Amino acid sequence: MTQPDMPTPPWERPPRRRTPARVPLSRERIVDAAYTILDREGYDGLSMRQVAAELGVAVSALYVHVRDKDELLQLMYNRTFEGYEIPEPDPERWREQVMDFARQARERLLSHRDLAKITMAHVPFTPELLPYVERLLAVLGAAGLPRRVLAISGDLLSTYINGFALEESLWQERYRETHDSWHKLRDEVNGYFASLPPDRFPNLVRLADIMMDESNDYRFELGVEIILRGLASYIGEPDPDEEHEAS
Length: 247
Fold this sequence. Notes:
Blueprint: H1 27-41, H2 48-55, H3 59-62, H4 69-80, H5 94-109, H6 115-120, H7 130-142, H8 147-178, H9 182-195, H10 202-207, H11 216-232, H12 240-246
Helix pairs in contact: 1-2, 5-7, 5-8, 5-11, 7-8, 8-11
């Protein structure tokens, strides 16, 4: 063995460089990498090839754990629900509980770039997501909604939440490309509406100063409140299905 102060003899091989041990590939790591790509490249830039490159593996290695890109997107969708807190149904607080659910959902959808595009294209009926759907329906059902209204209430809420978040994400994408601010767009639109002929567009002119004046938080929660008030108007109404069964 060569001493520290001696040159290495030409016949002595240098020690092999140790390579770090590879972390085993798993679904969790694949989904983590997919989110990294999503945040960096957006939905259109997310591909199995990109995920494999991010992990430093061959594309074929991914298919041992994930069937295809569609399953990967479903796994990403499933993760948005992890840690969701939907409380036990309380008939006295059902509107507050649904509002809290809506806030959580929007916050999660905006936590990653273009995540709303993924959720709009997938249904939450996997074994991992059904418990959350069941709990939300339990909260709404505790309010006393008729069965037919209850059956579509969850889908109505999720469509609004996903659609609102998608619109926000599209605006964020535009901002990345143009660097236009929300305030600039708002002022331009408000000014345009105010300049319209009032005899032809009386409502647009009358509402020009407030149509886009509120924050997205306010607009989102007002939209949820409008839905909740609409649902509340059905409480106590007879359910045609139950009446038919009773007869």
